[in-house]
Specification:
Blueprint lengths: L1 H7 L6 H5 L1 E6 L6 H16 L4 E5 L7 H12 L2 E4 L3 H10 L5 E5 L9 H10 L6 E8 L4 H11 L4 E7 L8 H9 L4 E5 L8 E3 L2 H30 L5
Parallel strand pairs: 1-4, 1-5, 2-3, 2-4, 5-6, 6-7
Antiparallel strand pairs: 7-8
Helix pairs in contact: 1-9, 3-4
């Protein structure tokens, strides 16, 4: 069964860092997009040189969004730009055309936010540059929330997904199920706040093994609790 699950999963084989290009990270608020952008940028700078990496934010809604990304940019040594619409994005991307890796940090929005369509249209309307979109999802989210999020963000063509907060999740079955059901290749997994240490290239075999370990740990804990409850009630009704 585990082998079958593993065979149904697909990964992007470290596409972002291996190939370079222009990538936008999209997804709901609070999933860690900005930190993930910083992790990928830091690794990209190690591979290509910081002067060959650039960051863009389209987030004009959240207070401090640009400043947060700019701080990461200063630490990494790469440039950071902010754009407010599709025209500005096209212009900035043209100026950055010689960069090996450009990462776009988009505004975090609820899948029910009406501004989401506007945000996604900004990415879709750019015809000059091939922007590859990665959906960032939290491994701690409930499966119905994950499914609704994927459904809304599929308005843009998704090249893959990135799962965050694996260190906070008690189960990985939900994210594996979402990836398989929606035929979403998994690109990267993050498991902490450290930049760039806490990010891993997705590996189907390792992810399935980790999911199995968490499942066994959870069922063992549940069994222990049931035994404890049973022991505490012995003799209560004699």
């Amino acid at each position: 069964l585990l082998q079958m699950v593993e065979n149904q999963m697909h990964t992007t084989n470290n596409e972002i860092l291996r190939q370079g290009g222009v990538y936008a990270l999209v997804g709901p608020t609070g999933v860690g997009k900005t930190t993930t952008v910083a992790k990928l940028a830091a690794l990209g700078a190690q591979k290509y040189g910081a002067d060959k990496v650039a960051l863009i934010t389209t987030d004009t809604y959240r207070i401090g969004a640009y400043e947060q990304l700019a701080t990461y940019g200063r630490i990494i040594g790469c440039g950071v730009k902010q754009v407010k619409d599709a025209n500005e994005l096209a212009e900035v991307l043209y100026h950055l055309r010689n960069k090996r890796l450009v990462l776009i940090d988009t505004a975090g929005m609820s899948q029910r936010d009406l501004r989401l369509t506007e945000q996604l249209n900004t990415l879709m309307r750019n015809q000059r540059v091939d922007i590859r979109n990665y959906l960032v999802l939290s491994a701690t989210a409930q499966i119905n929330v994950l499914q609704e999020t994927v459904r809304h963000f599929k308005k843009v063509q998704l090249s893959g997904c990135i799962f965050t907060k694996l260190d906070e999740s008690l189960s990985l079955g939900e994210i594996i199920s979402i990836a398989i059901q929606n035929r979403l290749p998994i690109g990267y997994l993050t498991n902490g706040q450290r930049v760039p240490e806490d990010i891993r290239v997705a590996n189907a075999e390792k992810l399935v093994k980790k999911a199995e370990q968490l499942y066994l740990k959870r069922t063992k804990a549940q069994h222990s609790r049931r035994q404890a409850v049973a022991s505490s009630t012995v003799g209560m009704y004699d």
